[in-house]
Specification:
By secondary structure, the chain is of the alpha/beta class. Helices cover 23% and strands 27% of the residues. Helix 1 packs across helix 4.
Length: 161
């Protein structure tokens, strides 16, 4: 599977760009999955008091909650899961969009930059491109620049490499 990360500072618009890319991929007839990396250490995806929560609290290594419209798998772990492990749990698709994991050098990354501060790409040559609004200066950046407003151009770049 092709895997690309969308990275950037908090509030830069990563999630918004991913939403637009998902829609554009679907319009082109391609399949897409996402993985969201968070730096929040104590996330809770289950509802305290519900049966699935109680199963996990009792010590189940994994709990699957299923309904007629989908299912979710909750897995207990004593160590963080690597991106490779997480990718191994996905069904095959044309493209996996990852939000975060900005430090993984082997992972193709596109940075969303809105002009506040310095682009991550200035210190990270592994970032393949910077998507910024038209008019935002990327002084000194010699890499690929993409117009943040042009979802199609960003998707073309992602799919071409």
């Amino acid at each position: 599977m092709r895997v690309v990360a969308i990275v950037g500072s908090q509030g830069s618009g990563k999630t918004t760009l991913i939403e637009r890319l998902i829609l554009a991929l679907r319009e082109r007839g391609l399949t897409v999955s996402t993985i969201k990396h968070t730096h929040h250490h104590a996330i809770e995806l289950d509802t305290p008091g519900k049966d699935s929560y109680r199963h996990r609290l009792a010590g189940a290594a994994e709990v699957i909650v299923a309904s007629d419209s989908g299912w979710a798998r909750l897995a207990a772990s004593t160590t963080p899961a690597s991106l490779q492990i997480l990718l191994g749990h996905l069904r095959p698709v044309d493209l996996v969009l990852v939000e975060g994991f900005k430090k993984l050098e082997w992972l193709k990354r596109v940075e969303v930059f809105r002009g506040a501060g310095t682009p991550l790409a200035m210190d990270d040559p592994g970032i393949a491109a910077v998507a910024a609004p038209v008019g935002v200066s990327l002084a000194g950046y010699k890499g690929m620049k993409l117009p943040l407003e042009d979802t199609s151009a960003i998707l073309d770049f992602i799919l071409s490499t």
